[in-house]
Amino acid sequence: MARFVDPGSSRTKIDALVEVWKEQCLVESGSFLFHDRSVWTSAHLEDFRQRFLENPLLGTEEDFGQKLATQLETASEDVRWLVCELVAVYFLFARGAIGGPTKRATLEPIIASLGADRPPRWQRLAETMDEGIGNPGVGYNINRDIQIGYLIDFCLRFKAIDDVEERRRLLTDPWDLRDFADAASDGISVREMRHILLHLLRPDEFERMSSRTHKQNIVAAFADELLTGDDVPEDLDEQILLIRQKLIDLDAQPDAHQGILDFYWPPLHSIWDPGSDRPDGASDLDLLLYKKQIVLYGPPGTGKTHRTRELADRLIRRVALEKWRARRFFSSQVELDDYIKDNRPLGAAAPGLRLRRVHTWPAPLGRRQHRLRQRPAAAAGRADEHRGRGRPAAGDPRAR
């Protein structure tokens, strides 16, 4: 079960709203704001698709909610309510960077022209916006058109299933639902929203993750130890579910909040840590293991040393898991802590790998050195002043 939520947070209202959305909006064509109104119809979804995807507003100073309001100026009331509910579904997963006030402030312009009266279940929706499940990453927030475009496409394809009972069955079968989610229409990007939507609909099988890279890193970290035998599934999500079950059997996270194992909490996160906020592609740890070296470049104070230490710790934990096997690794925290301390950089992090700090001259000094080579006599004093932090060079008339 992957229904984890951070201590002090809740997802109860989110899960309750999703259950209503599944039955009344996806299986049927109703609404989760109104009791007796047909909002989630194929015709309304197609109307919004054309306004949103085929007529994008580019190069304006309007925010996302204002752009939506402009695109919906000639839309019917039902289409506006559909868009409001659909954008609310998009917001359900996010917490942290996108809080409740921001979510509600985005929904209001969509329905502002419909008057001050709100539907019977509006307050429930407004309160649900204060909850969240995970951090979906930067791409989820910046590329809202891609995420919502995928959600529109998913709903349209789902509505194209004529048999209501088949729609209901599809929502109960996690692996058929996964295949359906992956079969996006041409031109639709399968990004963070795919992972989020599967978790919302089937939280017991799909992790609270929006990143495929995170999932790949988890499998890479635990595969040799926990994915053995002839019955290992090929699918990434099925592999993670099997890893979860085996980690639970090993009591790998004895202090888990509410007894629910979560890959983003210690000690699991420190084993597979992605080392990157990128939702797709290779992580820093992937690149280090592949190239056997990595360069972290930037001015002082940008976290290079901290990141190097983190990478070293993750790498050492990965090696310890492979060397000790899972049962010893998760049952001896004191021994593991000692092992990490003994192998931190600048010591050997893993066979064939060492982490070391490389100092380079900053670019401004490099230019001064170039000028010194070109005009040694004229530049000698200035270069010496730079090296001496303002002190005159020996022999300079200013020296005392």
Structure description:
- The structure is a single chain.
- This protein has 400 residues and is mainly alpha-helical.
- It folds into three domains: 12-201, no CATH class; 212-354, no CATH class; 361-400, no CATH class.
- Helices cover 55% and strands 1% of the residues.
- The longest helix is centred in the last third of the chain and has 21 residues, at 304-324.
- 32% of the residues are buried.
Give a quick rundown of the structure.
The protein is an all-alpha fold and 400 residues long. The protein has helices spanning 12-27, 42-53, 64-71, 77-91, 100-111, 122-128, 138-142, 144-159, 164-172, 174-182, 192-201, 212-226, 236-249, 269-272, 284-291, 304-324, 326-331, 333-342, 363-374, 376-387, and strands spanning 348-350, 353-354. Helix 2 crosses helix 4, helix 12 (212-226) packs across helix 13 (236-249) and helix 19 (363-374) runs antiparallel to helix 20.
Write the layout of secondary structure elements.
Blueprint: H1 12-27, H2 42-53, H3 64-71, H4 77-91, H5 100-111, H6 122-128, H7 138-142, H8 144-159, H9 164-172, H10 174-182, H11 192-201, H12 212-226, H13 236-249, H14 269-272, H15 284-291, H16 304-324, H17 326-331, H18 333-342, E1 348-350, E2 353-354, H19 363-374, H20 376-387
Antiparallel strand pairs: 1-2
Helix pairs in contact: 1-9, 2-4, 2-8, 3-5, 4-5, 8-11, 12-13, 19-20
